[in-house]
Each structure stands twice: as structure tokens, then as C-alpha cells.
Amino acid sequence: MEIIALIKDVLNSRTPRYIQQPSYIHAAVLIPLFIENGTFKILFTRRTNKVEHHKGQVSFPGGAVDKKDSSLEATAFREAYEEVGLLEEDVEILGRIDDTLTIVSDFIVHPFVGFVPYPYDYTINTAEVDKLIKVPVTVFDSRNPEYQRDLVKYDGMTIRSIAYEYNGDVIWGATARMMENFMDIIGHEFPLPGAKK
User: Fold this and answer.
1) Per the structure, how many domains does the chain have?
2) What's the pLDDT tens digit per position in 76-118?
3) Bridge pairing between strands 25-36 and 107-115
């Protein structure tokens, strides 16, 4: 598909920003991109309240690097399989976006963008994932401000953070920053409905 090849070219024509913080824990996530009824969407998970970090938050499939992982990409694949049953052979890695830091939990997150089939028979790990959330890419488009927020209520606090709200789910923190970075890099490839390219 032409637009997928274009996204891959854009991602691979740049050098991602790498963060070096020796005291931080390395983690990797998969940003699963798919097409449903002609609309590009991103797959997110809502984390359960049983997980150690970021309880109840919307995130990408991913987690901390394991000593057995051969690479950061292998971490993203392993975690995607463990959390939602997504098989490595069903993912086409398109490239990387910039590393990001989590503010409270001290992770350096290495994000990989992957194109995945739709429909797909996901198997949710209910200890880690409460539900899957499918969000149109255009929700994150800066030309589409109706979904964008700058304050988030979480755990009894009001936090100033870039955030996106879609169908009652709020995407904020490191996940929102990764989506902002993703859109800064390739968002122009996803015109708003009715917009001319």
C-alpha cells in the first residue's frame, strides 16, 4: 500500500532522538497502526489496576527490557504478544520515533511503529490489560482540536499534560507525547476527513 510505504520511508529517512540516562530503566513499545473500514487507527490498551506501573492508564503494548531480549525491537514484540497475543510475524515494523521519558516511573521508552492486520484475533492478558481501544489517527491531528486537552484528572490530582480524549478514554503522559511526536513526523500523511491532500 502506497501510504504505508511512504510512512516507512519517512521514518527510516531520519535518525530518532535517543535518550541516554544511565539511572533509567529501558522499555520498548509497539505503536500498532491498522486500517479499519478505510480509516487509519492506532491500537491502545487500558492497563489494569493490577500492574506495577501506570495503573488504569491508556498505553501501547510494551514494557521493560528483559535480559533475554535480543534487541529493543524484540522487547516490543515480546510484550505485544504477552499483553494482546499479537504475533511477531503479523507485524510489519515501519520504523522508530523518538525516545521518550516517563516522568514518575523513570523509564526511557523506545517506540516502534508497526503495521498490523485488521481484523485480528487478539488474546488479552487480563492480568495486564483491561481492554483494547481503537482510535482514529486523525484524533491526534493538531488541525482537529476537539479531541485535545491540556488538563488531566488522575488519582485525585489535576495534572497539566498534553492529552487526547476519545469516546471517554483519555490518552495522556508519555503515550500522548509519543503520539504527538508520531504526528509531528508523519501526521501530514493522514488528511482530515474531507481535506484535500
Assistant:
1) 1
2) 999 999 999 999 999 999 999 999 998 778 999 999 999 999 9
3) parallel
